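Input chain follows. Return structure tokens only.
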Amino acid sequence: MVPIRWPFCAICLVALSGCWSVNARIDREVGELSSQIDHVEIRPALDLAPAAEPKANVRPAETESSPPPQKDNRAVPAQSNPVQQVAYLQATVKPPQRLVVPPGLPGADAPPITKFPQDPVLKKKYIQALFPPLPAAPKMRPPAPGPEGRPMTLADFQRLAAVYSPAIKSAEAAVEAAKGAVKQAGAYPNPQFFFEQDTVGTGPGGYEGFGFNQVVKTANKLKLQQAAAMMDLLNAQLALKRAYSDLAYQVRTNYFALLVALQGVKTNEALYRFTNEIYRVQVDKVEGQISAPYEPMQLRPLAIQARFNLVQAQNQYLASWRQLAATLGLRDMPPTEVAGCVDMPVPVFKYNEVLARVLADHTDVLTAINSIHKARFNLEFAKVTPVPDVTLNVLVQKDYTAPPNLLVHSLQFGFPVPIFDHNQGNIKQAEGQLAQAAAGPDLARNSLTSSLADAYNRYETARYNVELALQQCRDQVRAYSLLYSRYHQDPTAVAFGDVVTAQQTLAGYVAAYVTALGLQWTAVNDVANLLQTDDLFQVGPKQEMAPVPDLRQLGPPRGMPRSLPVGVQ
């Protein structure tokens, strides 16, 4: 044994005394922080109304003095009576020009329309140059038939989305990962095998052998861990169900938007053809000297606008299809024929019934309930964590120190004694997490109730809007039909411009009815999304919708009036 010298001992004592002072300082600081934590008071936030501020003395706005009137410096004959003075001013002062086209407007520099040439050939060329024909209506490529030679339904789109959507694949992978976590949480610790050689270098012999080390879990810890992981698996399965529901909602949203866009194409195509036809009719009347030249010019901007609306509707259809294809996970899918129409029957919801189903079966509520179970299992695990696990060591060796060189074995087991660490901090944390999880179902139900209130409000408003738009459309159809019939019976009683205005108004009301139907489907889809129903059309009773009026059946200007458009009685 090497003797310890005094200088070295002195250095050790000084070091130990320094560590002791550092530990004492840390203990003192931790104690002060603990006392501060115990005295922290957390109170709920209160939005108190601010105190009324004293009103400042507001001075009345000073009126700006108007500039003095300009004096007329023109000389008036001095030797004249008032009548002569007035006559002089009327003769010399020019009245201001009104309703003059500003020179900066497009078309203000166009030459005036002169008399038509007497020669029929020159007259026709002049009128063609003055009123050129409008370009033909843009045509879209016809959609391809569905995979089975029939138009694709909403259910067909949803089946494709379930197969190709990356959102579903991600949710399914999360479920498989949760299954692995459950299996791993219940797995027993592996034993540790080792080789041991004792008394090496102390003589001609020694001890050599093999052994293993095993931790024995106690207090049912593995089962508690596995039960907590099982709650995560259940929530992952609920998340998969939510992913299917969200995907169905997105497919429905894009599907109904596509139906609205298709109806918009049909309506605007009919409107363009009608507007272009009445424009050509007016040109023919000008050529026959029945109408004034300005009348076709009033109709031409309407026809150009109708063509633009048709192009816009076609582009909206293509955009809606691309959005639907992206939702399916098939971005390059070409447009195909689609079954369904915007005026098909819609489900009817009752608020109390929908609310009861949402609060009982929604995945958010079920997930919150599973989170409570998980927090309870975690709390139980935190309570049994101080129960020590037993460590077992078994060793078998060969004795080479002396004959007869027998095999000997050693056995050792031990466990930690919970003297200092009783896991109180983790237990308190688990209790807080359990209390936090206990509020989860009520929070979810409150949020769902608020969402349903908004969705149901839009649903009821959309239904009323559909009824209003339909009534307006019916009234305008009747008004247009009577005006159109009166125009052909007595053209002098009704101006042709009034017929055009009535037709444009009718087209506007038809478009408003289509828009109202689209908003109604949006609200229906929002309510169905909260219900998380698998079949939108079987969720409850259905209400029939009036068909959208077919503008293609509007009578041509030169013919006799036909019957009312289809769907309007």
